[in-house]
Amino acid sequence: MPRYWLMKSEPDEASIDDLACAPKQTMPWSGVRNYQSRNFMRDDMRAGDGVLFYHSSCPQPGVAGLAEVAGVPYADPTQFDPQSEYFDPKATREAPRWVLVDVRLVKKTPLLPLARMRQRPELASMRVLQRGNRLSITPVSAAEWKAVRELLGA
DNA sequence: GCCAACGTTGGC
DNA sequence: GCCAACGTTGGC
Q1: Amino acid A2: pLDDT
Q2: How far is residue A104's CA from residue A61's CA, in Å, rounded to a whole number?
Q3: pTM, whole model, 2 decimals?
Q4: Which bases of chain C come closer than 7 Å to a protein CB?
Q5: Cβ of residue A46 near strand B, that is under 7 Å?
Q6: Alpha-carbon distance A37 to A143, whole Å?
Q7: For chain A, which ranges sit under pLDDT 50?
Q8: Which domains does chain A possess?
Q9: 3-class secondary structure, A104
């Protein structure tokens, strides 16, 4: 049973182009510091799950491409690095607090702007469109995935 | 820059 | 364990 996710990234930090240029077109999804989002990665993601790569906090927020979960979750190394903005002094290597998964590019697409997603009734249920939603990782239903893929022309 | 919404913190 | 205050997210 395939599963689908939407994962937000600020393109200033990690854009779809950064992913396309990364070795093996794969990057660790580091920096998640929200328990719900962490739990999705830790408990629910499987290698091969579909990912909508979403650009947030930028002039044109929206889905910028398709990706997939590339492996099993493991400790996010940035939590141990005092130089990192994601350093967490309460995390230890014995008891890591934050995990991540690797994400691999499947296909960069023309941007599907958030404003256009809002116009589609079949996407109205998407978590990312809900008022006040702040989760950086949200599950996507099979129907939503199919509808978004069609809008992406993918 | 504004502000709505929600998560986290910390005093009690 | 409550809950007010504070911080963060993120679209606009």
Answers
A1: 61
A2: 20
A3: 0.93
A4: 8-12
A5: no
A6: 21
A7: none
A8: 4-152 (3.10.590.10)
A9: strand
